[in-house]
Design a protein that fits this description.
The complex is a heterodimer of chains A (about 140) and B (about 140). Helices cover about 75% and strands about 0% of the residues of chain A. By secondary structure, chain A is mainly α. Chain A has a domain of about 70 residues. The chains are: A mainly alpha (about 140), B mainly alpha (about 140). Chain B: Keywords: Membrane, Transmembrane, Transmembrane helix.
Chain lengths: ~140, ~140
C-alpha cells in the first residue's frame, strides 16, 4: 500500500527527531536495548536509572494510549511460544553483547557513519534475512 | 537534578513509541516482511530507517557546533573504531532472533501493553537474555 511507505517515512523522521532531541538534550545516543537493559540492571553505567526508567515509561505508555484512542497498527506475534522464547533470548542477549540494536547502532551509528554502527547494522540485517528463512524452513512462521 | 533531565527522557520515549506505532514497526509481520527478501518483500522498514537516519544525521551536524548538551552533559566523542568479535557475534544473534519473531528491543517495549498476552513470553525472554550478558562480561 502506498500509504505504508509514507507513514513509514514520517514515523522514521520522528524516530530521528527523538534520537536528535536525546542527543542534543541529554548528550547521549538513544539506544533502546541499552536503556531497557539499564532499567533491570540499576548498577549499569551510562544514563542514570531514573532517566532510563522514564524513557521506557514513555516508550511503553504512549503506544498504549494511542491504541486506546484507536490509532496505529497493532502488534501480534506471528510465531508460537517456543519460537518466541528462542527469539527473545537471542534478541536480548545479542543486542547487549553487541552493545546496541536497531536504534543505537542503526539510527545513532549509521547516521554519523560510525564503523561499529555500520558493521553491526549490516550483520543484523543479513542475519535477520536468515532468521526469516530459518523460521519458515522449520515451519515456525509464515 | 533539573526538571529537563526528567521531562526529556519521558518525552523522547513517548515520541519514539508513537513513531514506532505510526510507522507500523510494532507489527512483526511488517518487520519480517522487510527481511523476507526472497518472499513478498515489504519495503516499509527501509523508509522508516531512511527517514530516521536522515534526521539524525542533521542532529549530529548540529551537535558538532556544541560541546555540551542542554542538560550540561558532555556530547559523545568520536565514534569508536574497534570492531571486535562481540560486535559481530552479538549482532548475528540479535539479527537471527529479530528475523524469527519480528521484534527488536524498541518495538518490543512499545508493544508491551498493546500486544496479546503470548507476546509477554518474548518480552520476558528478551529481558532474561539482556540480564544473561552479565555472565560473559
Amino acid at each position: 500500500m502506498p500509504t505504508d511507505w509514507i507513514l513509514g517515512l514520517i514515523g522514521g523522521a520522528l524516530i530521528g527527531l527523538a534520537a536528535a532531541v536525546f542527543l542534543l538534550g541529554m548528550g547521549r545516543i538513544m539506544g533502546a536495548s541499552g536503556l531497557i537493559a539499564g532499567v533491570i540492571d540499576p548498577g549499569a553505567r551510562g544514563t542514570p536509572w531514573l532517566e532510563r526508567a522514564l524513557f521506557v515509561l514513555g516508550l511503553v505508555g504512549m503506544p498504549a494510549l494511542l491504541v486506546a484512542l484507536g490509532a496505529g497498527h497493532g502488534s501480534a506475534p506471528v510465531v508460537g511460544w517456543p519460537a518466541l522464547v528462542v527469539a527473545g533470548l537471542l534478541v536480548g542477549f545479542g543486542s547487549r553483547l553487541a552493545n546496541g540494536c536497531t536504534s543505537g547502532h542503526g539510527v545513532g551509528g549509521v547516521s554519523r557513519l560510525a564503523p561499529r554502527g555500520i558493521a553491526a547494522t549490516a550483520t543484523y540485517m543479513g542475519f535477520g534475512v536468515v532468521g526469516v528463512l530459518v523460521a519458515r524452513l522449520l515451519g515456525l512462521a509464515p | 537534578m533539573s526538571g529537563l533531565r526528567l521531562v526529556l527522557p519521558l518525552l523522547v520515549g513517548a515520541l519514539f513509541g508513537a513513531a514506532l506505532l505510526l510507522s507500523g514497526m510494532t507489527d512483526p509481520a511488517k518487520v519480517r516482511g522487510f527481511l523476507d527478501v526472497f518472499g513478498a518483500w515489504d519495503p516499509t522498514l527501509a523508509f522508516v530507517m531512511g527517514g530516521a537516519v536522515a534526521v539524525m544525521a542533521v542532529g549530529w551536524r548540529v551537535a558538532g557546533r556544541f560541546t555540551r548538551a542542554a542538560t550540561g552533559e558532555p556530547l559523545p566523542g568520536r565514534p569508536e573504531t574497534r570492531i571486535d568479535s562481540r560486535l559481530f557475534l552479538g549482532s548475528a544473534m540479535f539479527g537471527l532472533g529479530w528475523g524469527i519473531a519480528g521484534y527488536c528491543p524498541g518495538p518490543a517495549a512499545a508493544s508491551a501493553l498493546i500486544a496479546p498476552w503470548p507476546f509477554l513470553i518474548f518480552l520476558a525472554a528478551m529481558l532474561a537474555g539482556m540480564a544473561a550478558v552479565r555472565l560473559v562480561r
